[in-house]
Amino acid sequence: MGERVAFLGLGVMGFPMAGHLVQRGHEVAVWNRTSARAERFVASHRARAASTPAEAARGASFVFVCVGRDADVREVVLGEGGALGGLAPGAVLVDHTTASAELARELEARATERGAGSLDAPVSGGQAGAEQGALTVMVGGAEPAYDRALPVLRSYARQVRRLGPAGSGQLAKMVNQICIAGVLEGLAEGLHFAEAAGLDAEAVVDVISKGAAQSWQMDNRHRTMLAGEFDHGFAVEWMRKDLGLALAEARRCGAALPVAALVDQLYGEVEALGGRRWDTSSLIARLRRR
Amino acid sequence: MGERVAFLGLGVMGFPMAGHLVQRGHEVAVWNRTSARAERFVASHRARAASTPAEAARGASFVFVCVGRDADVREVVLGEGGALGGLAPGAVLVDHTTASAELARELEARATERGAGSLDAPVSGGQAGAEQGALTVMVGGAEPAYDRALPVLRSYARQVRRLGPAGSGQLAKMVNQICIAGVLEGLAEGLHFAEAAGLDAEAVVDVISKGAAQSWQMDNRHRTMLAGEFDHGFAVEWMRKDLGLALAEARRCGAALPVAALVDQLYGEVEALGGRRWDTSSLIARLRRR
User: Fold this and answer.
1) Which of A162, A218, B112, B259 is the most exposed place for a label (fewest CB within 10 A)?
2) Which of A186, A256, A258 is nearest residue B183 as measured by Cβ atoms?
3) CB pair distance less than 8 Å for B255 and A193
């Protein structure tokens, strides 16, 4: 039984996610800031392109947002012609953007004013996860809205979890990125040291990856790191955005993140090397080029 | 077919390792700085206690060393009554101590002078790995010595790998510890942030541990970290010793280890909290107690 849904933001994540909604039989209205991408979507999917977010949202039971930053979400949801203007009472706004917990709380307040629900629902799993419908979704918000959205979220998610009230999904995503920052810099330093010390780094990884040094990043990124290939994966500029959110939130809640703060600075040096679009594993490039 | 072997150093690692050698039918002579421990060993194993390392080494085909630091190895092997004095031509000295690559090269040179072989062979897998005979052994040294030692090393190792000439085992172990330093501090900061932000940290780990933030440490240490239990595992003072070796070697080979150097300092703060004997995952205690 298809729902009427809107999908706002057809980037590398949103495009395949909206595609899964169509495939599951939902009646999808799409909108994208660059309209050519929306036209490309409707040319290949049974869906309609709306002229504004508000128009897409009108009559929809679920309004999904997947854009870049807090400011983009504000514009697409709260701005002129924004989704909020079309949000029906009883509908649920689902923001897949990795954004601040503060924004998530504000969106929930604004949705509630219109008799609608709101969930913050950042994802992990990357472009491949979006294409394969195998994303992880970390959700914050009220339980009734979560329960209603869950079956629809399963269109593109392998794992969906509500972690608490509005903002909790965003905070959980920040925990994810903080852990990754430490793992990746440790791995980069380990591989860089192996090279500098004249070891066969590939052989070393083969040995140590079965024990206490093992990580998803070691298993999945050491080869490309050793080869210096970074034209894939999750871009440095997006990681810096996410670490910026985590560091700002840490200031508010009084957490200390010495290594996350340092790694954010190291990514700044990767950007200075021309690596804004390189995968996050490119921390090793900075160590090599000093 | 049992070999005549000597085992020098019956600490939490050496004691069970020597036990596996006895079980495999080798003729074992043991020596320990605190002789009570050697007496305890021979009371429960078919083995003999030697009065000096040299006496233990005399007539042995393999002489295993498993002590604390470079200085201990020097004393036990090169000092008065040290193993070198008893090392037979054709025997192989196997140092399981995590020590410097420089020392490994020196030991090989000294063993070679006596017509013997030498391998640096630091292990990972901890006390549990030693007890279960499931250690990983990272070996540096000449191939003939390695080929001869391999069947004996398998007495307590699940994984044995030669990584290059003398010192390569030590360097590989340093890579392992560098990676772990980053992983553990990232995990500690992530969990600390989750707590400070009011999240259910256990639920967050449950979600993110299936993706790019996953690590052996996350899988195996997050519960005790959240519970503040650190009376197990690998002690902070030993991790600092290992990071000290890595940082000194990095100076020599020109590698940059900004996070490993920082984490070494953070461990210093854990020690100041009384945590010298706490597990390495106690980095979170420092974040909590600021």
Assistant:
1) B112
2) A186
3) yes
Whether the CB of B217 is below 8 Å from some CB of chain A: the reply is: yes
The catalytic position among A26, A58, A173, A192 is: A173
Active site residue B241: no
Q: Which domain holds residue B64?
A: 4-164
pTM for the predicted model, two decimal places: 0.97
What's chain A's length in residues? 290
CB-based contact A69:A97 (threshold 8 Å): yes
pLDDT digits 0-9 by tens, A135-183: 999 999 999 999 999 999 999 999 999 999 999 999 999 999 999 999 9
Whether residues A197 and A95 share a domain: the answer is: no
Q: Do A194 and B175 touch (CB under 8 A)?
A: yes
Q: Residue B289 above 90 pLDDT?
A: no
Cα–Cα distance list, B6 to A41, A164, A228, B81, B144 (Å): 72, 59, 46, 14, 20
A184 and A150 both lie in a single domain: no
> Tokens representing A30?
């799409």
Residues A101 and A224 in one domain: no
Rounded (5°) CA angle B281-B254-B108: 80
Whether residue A57 contacts residue A87, with contact meaning beta carbons closer than 8 Å, is answered with yes
Q: Kindly list the distances between the CA atom of residue A67 and the CA atoms of A55, A64, A70, A74, B35, in Å, as whole numbers in the listed order.
A: 17, 10, 9, 10, 68
